[in-house]
Amino acid sequence: MDFPIPTRQLFINGDWKAPVLNKRIPVINPATQNIIGDIPAATKEDVDAAVAAAKTALNRNKGADWATASGAVRAGYLRAIAAKVTEKKPVLAKLESIDSGKPLDEAAWDIDDVAGCFEYYADLAEKLDARQKAPVSLPMDTFKSHVLREPIGVVGLITPWNYPMLMATWKVAPALAAGCAAILKPSELASLTCLELGEICKEVGLPPGVLNILTGLGPEAGAPLATHPDVDKVAFTGSSATGSKIMTAAAQLVKPVSLELGGKSPLIVFEDVDLDKAAEWALFGCFWTNGQICSATSRLIVHESIATEFLNRMVKWIKNIKISDPLEEGCRLGPVVSEGQYEKILKFVANAKSEGATILTGGSRPEHLKKGFFIEPTIITDVTTSLQIWREEVFGPVLCVKTFSTEEEAIHLANDTVYGLGAAVISNDLERCERVTKAFKAGIVWVNCSQPCFTQAPWGGIKRSGFGRELGEWGLDNYLSVKQVTQYISDEPWGWYQPPAKL
What we know:
The structure is a single chain. By secondary structure, the protein is of the alpha/beta class. Helix content is 39%, strand content 20%. The protein has 15 helices and 22 strands. Strand 15 (378-381), helix 12 and strand 16 (398-404) form a beta-alpha-beta unit.
């Protein structure tokens, strides 16, 4: 039986508002394919209302209520949100699980991270006060200079469906800590917990308009938000194709953007490893979050001397992965998020097979699950570097494999991609790991692991994986504008021009 979901409207100016056009989108549980409710579908009219509310929030009381309030004041709200998230964790985790298909244990972990992220940026908001008026050393003693860090303004935050509440928080928490007002537009494929964040903001008394939440389709809600002239910055996580469109639109207004886009991350496994430890990390790196993660190390590059034994070991590990309804105890692989994603992934696998690759294991629906968008963990071998499965992001539980003989060959295979989000290396030779780390063309490198993510450390990519960094101090800087203030402090005239003759 499906877990009941709340019925919500759009969250605008601190309250629930029905969409102007009264449109709604059905919510489908990917494990059962049942419609379990619906969410409001915002359009341009609702975007305009949310942006106006955000502008008003920044200007209210000449900014003193939020934008120019002390960081300590904003920190109080962020900590209150964190506490409410923790209090509601059991419900939020279940909503996340039935909405996105991720195993309940994963969803619960995500909700813990949501609370931790709000707490972390509460601390940084407080520290921001001490960073104000930081002096700048100058070569002339007749001047003194300092910098002010000010909120960038109204920000549009467009987030994906694979970590619905957590990816939203990665943007919302630092934006609010900086003193911005935000409009959050989550993916229409998984928005339930983001709407619950609106209810939490009501409960803690967040000033109206500081955070607005619009669910809806990309063309109808996301595009008007990204192109709105009163939105001062857009932060986007999602596909490279959509990111390119957002960047193009922002360029017309010279509007800053930060983009966290797709990936096709490599994992190099050398011959000196513990096979079981390495096998588990290789599986976790690709099949965590049902394989639906932009940083998934979905290109396994394994030394030829251990390849056969290593892959056999991985297949044995896969047989122990529990594939089930994500609410079942012990589930470690749930369904992918939607029918569209399900069909897209199976087409990737079919194309790989038709192009000459070998499906070593998986590649289809598990026999014991007749309903739901379930796909077995899949390993594909006999892959060439020209194959679609090797070059393009699948966003599902599919791992493709190539072998190498030398370190140089492995590095070349790893970097031969248009993406540059994550990369991983597993070896007992730490000097070799250091060499490979420096050689990787990626924004994130994991050594002897794959996919750990900490709020304190920067996250982001290079090349077509985007630019800008989230999390850590870098995440806060995303939403701050730096203002230079320089003062002439000498009693002497400047003396550049000849003074006029005295009368």
